[in-house]
Design a protein that fits this description.
- By secondary structure, this protein is α/β, with parallel strands linked by helices.
- The chain has helices spanning 34-47, 67-83, 102-107, 133-142, 156-160, 162-170, 183-186, 192-203, 225-235, 237-252, 264-280; strands at 16-21, 49-54, 57-60, 63-64, 89-92, 95-97, 119-123, 146-150, 177-182, 209-211.
- It starts with 15 loop residues before the first strand and ends with a helix.
- The structure holds fe (ii) ion.
- Fe (ii) ion binds at residues 20, 22, 95, 213.
Length: 282
């Protein structure tokens, strides 16, 4: 790739933290059993991860991970990783499908935030976006929560109406909504439209987190190196490391991520370029 930056041999890519990962065994469509969880953990350590937030589904495809089960599996996985001397820290979390019940589910402790921080990882439906999304977000924010939107680049309506999505995000206070893109979108393994949208979000500074969203050792493994090379070529090393290490650390420790405001000129130009490329692949 033109302008690609080699990441081999750099200590800075150690100590990354994966904020979105289905490493827990047998709870959703992620790791099948503890053996696979451990093998995923080994891959992650080799990739340079220090830690992972386990984020099983709540609401997606009939998976409603139970709070107590998530906590128990995290404890058991930590014990097993310790026993096998695998140095990967595991934090509890969830990936919650967008629904109007989320504020109540949070109050009833049916769903919870990433490592009990203010940040909740929310997944949008793949096809469309519901009406009143801005009111829903406002309500969550007024309850003291902050949103991390999981892989919006894969949502078909966001791809079609990226300018509306940008307006929605920009209508809230900077840092109240963070955007997580997925490594396989950047490496063009999740479809060309997701690839274009992920690159747009990265180039404009609207993407704040890069995660693996790994589900297994084979089909969606927790690899990130190829995506890092692409991200560094687009956004530079410093900002890429913020997205895979510094800001994820801030989030799991309950701090506040305050990103830079996107440059309006870059935003407009990138939107035009995205629209042209998107029309060609429709
Ligand atoms: Fe996920």
């Amino acid at each position: 790739m033109k302008n690609a930056i080699s990441i081999q041999g750099h200590n800075s890519i150690q100590k990354m933290l994966d904020l979105h990962n289905h490493i827990l065994p047998g709870i959703d469509d992620g790791a099948a059993d503890f053996d696979e969880s451990v093998r995923m953990a080994k891959i992650m350590v080799a990739e340079g991860f220090r830690a992972v937030v386990a984020t099983p589904h709540y609401g997606r495809a009939g998976f409603y991970s139970e709070h107590a089960t998530v906590r128990r599996l995290v404890r058991e996985l930590k014990v097993e990783l310790c026993r096998q001397q695998i140095n990967l820290v595991v934090y509890p979390g969830m990936e919650v499908l967008l629904s109007p019940e989320i504020p109540e589910l949070l109050r009833n402790r049916k769903v919870f935030t990433l490592n009990d921080s203010p940040y909740i990882l929310i997944e949008f439906p793949q096809m469309g976006l519901p009406a009143g999304l801005d009111n829903f977000i406002s309500q969550l924010l007024s309850d003291g929560k902050k949103l991390i939107i999981a892989h919006p680049e894969k949502n078909h309506e966001i791809q079609r109406r990226l300018d509306h999505f940008v307006d929605l995000v920009n209508s809230f206070r900077l840092g109240d909504i963070l955007i997580q893109i997925t490594a396989d979108s950047l490496t063009n393994k999740a479809g060309h439209k997701a690839f274009l949208a992920a690159k747009f979000l990265l180039r404009t500074g609207l993407a704040h987190i890069i995660s693996t969203d790994a589900h297994s050792c084979s089909e969606r493994p927790p690899n990130i190196r190829e995506a890092l090379t692409i991200a560094m070529a687009i956004a530079g090393r410093e900002r890429t490391m913020k997205m895979v290490r510094d800001w994820p650390e801030t989030i799991v420790s309950g701090g506040e991520v305050i990103p830079e405001r996107p440059d309006i000129k870059v935003l407009r130009q990138s939107l035009t370029e995205f629209s042209c490329s998107f029309r060609k692949c429709v």
